[in-house]
Amino acid sequence: MIRAIISRHACLFFLLLLSATLFAARHPRSAPHEAQPAPSEPDRPRKEPSAVRGVEIVQQGGYPELRVDGKPFFIHSAAFFYYRIPRDLWAVSLDRHRELGINTIDLYIPWNWHEPREGELDFDGHSDPRRDLRALLRLISEKGFKLNARPGPVILNEWRHGGYPDWLLERPEYKMEVRDRLEGRYAPLSNLNARDAEAAAKGWLENDTHMRYTRKWLVAVAHELSEYSSQRTQRIKVPSGKRGDLKEKAISGPLLFVQLDDDMAIGRANYAGPAFWRYMSELRKMLEDGGLDVPAYINPTDMRVSAAGFGLERPIGAMGQWYL
């Protein structure tokens, strides 16, 4: 069940600097300074800088370096398909990830899994224990992992409809043949994206139903993710002393980055033009409206796409498609 993507995230580490650097520019963090003791109090101890600083990009030897809470951090990530794993095996499965050297969990969040019927969202597992996203996010944080989230709306990943709810694809605006819908195939524009991302984006933008329901979904899931942002402080309980007593510790939230859709603008012959970047920017805004404040990126196969994304007023990062 472990889909290791360490090499892929080596590329993510480098290319997400586009997005993270801009994020740092929008939210500047002045270098922590130590309080100077007053002349009349020469023995006064200096103030320690806060350990919670979230994601930062700094220059080290002329190269950008990703840091989390002030320390260099290299992402070794693996996907965790929680909806395919029994709820009572989540903890032990995450422990196995840790034993393999994984420090970051890559989380695809399927729309149709958490909203099986229109308007009936389940993030606490009341309809199925494997829908308890809230418990999973707490578990990931408590176990000390970092997090990369992929809430869609498309997650592909050999999952029914690539994540789109069946009740939504029934609508005529999606132009989905009944047989394809019953077989769980991807929506037509999801398939078109692999050949012509610009045309697919125009189709999504012109579909008011799609944009309205996608906004509802992304705002809702962003609300669940926002408290785990690396820009926020969390307090967790960790073992202390030989007796195993627990003490509270302040850490930054585990969520480092969020992906927009999946496999966007893949292929060297594909074209990602103004409509494509407008659609990606709209998806990012929906997440931000839900309270999410971490850098966003896409995952094309051709890194020329990342150059185009950097040309935006607010760049969107890119990562590659390499697997181990």
Kindly estimate the percentage of residues that lie in beta strands according to DSSP. Answer: 15-25%
What are the segments in which pLDDT stays under 50 over at least 5 consecutive residues?
1-49
- Radius of gyration, in Å, reads 21 Å
The averaged pLDDT comes out at 82
User: Counting H and I runs of at least 4 residues, what is the number of helices?
Assistant: 12
Strand order of the largest sheet: 1-5-6-7-10-11-12
Largest sheet: 7 strands, mixed
Helix content: 25-40%
**Topology as a string of helices (H) and strands (E):** EHHEEEEHEHHEHHHHHEEEHEHE
Structural class: alpha/beta
Question: Could you tell me the number of beta strands?
Answer: 12
Principal-axis shape equals globular
Q: Span between N and C termini?
A: 14 Å
The oligomerization state is single chain
Strands, helices and their partners?
Elements lengths: L2 E2 L1 H10 L1 H10 L28 E6 L2 E6 L2 E2 L4 E3 L10 H10 L4 E5 L2 H4 L18 H10 L3 E5 L15 H4 L8 H5 L5 H6 L3 H10 L1 H19 L6 E8 L4 E8 L2 E5 L14 H16 L6 E3 L5 H7 L6 E2 L6
Parallel strand pairs: 5-6, 6-7, 7-10, 10-11, 11-12
Antiparallel strand pairs: 1-5, 2-3, 3-4, 8-9
